[in-house]
Design goal:
heterodimer, A: 159 residues, B: 7 helices
Amino acid sequence: MSDACRFEANVIHAARHDAWSESLRAHLTTCEECEVTAAIAPWMTRFERMPDREHILPDPQVVWLKAQILRGTADALRVTRPLNIMQIAAYLVVAGGWAALLTWKWDVLRRWLSSLAPEQIVFEASGGQATLSVSFFGIVFVLASVTVMLALHTILAEE
Amino acid sequence: MSMPFAIETATSPGRNRKPMDEARFESFYRKTAGALWSYLFRLTGDSATADDLVQKAFFRFLRANPPLVSDEHMRRWMFRTATNLAMDHFRENKRWKRGEMPDAPSIVPDRGELRHDMMRVFSELKPQERALLWLAHVEETSHDEIAETLGLKSKSVRVLLFRARKKLAELLSKKGLAPAGAR
């Protein structure tokens, strides 16, 4: 509990309504807290009654409706948050997949690319080796499909 | 499919409570909004900010769906929420308006010179001091309730309120605005 002077509320009330009793006046001489309360209370009352209500507050029905709309927006955000997180995770997985594939098969891929040069085509035609496996193309196909699906999902979701 | 026109919140604290209906909200708003606006206007010194914060406080009220115990309980909830919003506002201003005095309301002199003087004196107090004085003197709130509203300890309220009153009394006498007291 607070140890406020028990007359504090009476002092504020007396100052607000200019209704001082003799005992309350006498109390002010013995209580520093109430003395300072009484000193500022009339000013606070004037400050409170200062005309400041020229402008009109919004209608309660407007506030109610706005609250409904905001609630709908907040609900939509809450519902779509897991989907957005999943989407970001999918981007990261696909990007990681491409990076891993390129790192893993980089040497083979570089050799395969250089084999497309005319002199290499001649060399391979005379019995050179084919360097890329079917599984590699399989993985490329899967990753490309997932990338396209993600891109389409993003575009359609935004629309 | 028609939806019941009442606030049903999905947030856990009020999930199982009966939502407030529009009629009760309207009645509560009419009783509380004016006092809340006056409090926020004195706290921030800006009517547009007070408008904004009043609306935000009511939006939060409807979203949180606090227990509908009594109007007095809900009113205290509103003042607590409004105080938090005002303090957030001051913190944001501090961040964005570097170099300016963030605690002081942006008061534009208007046709009421006295009003302007009063607002300027009040703005020289810290936001917490303004809130303490308004709640104690205008809302006639008890120290325990002030403590709850401002997130302070009850014992601290007495000391802080005393300091705020002394500071205001000094400001008033310095500016020659001290009214005749009880003696």
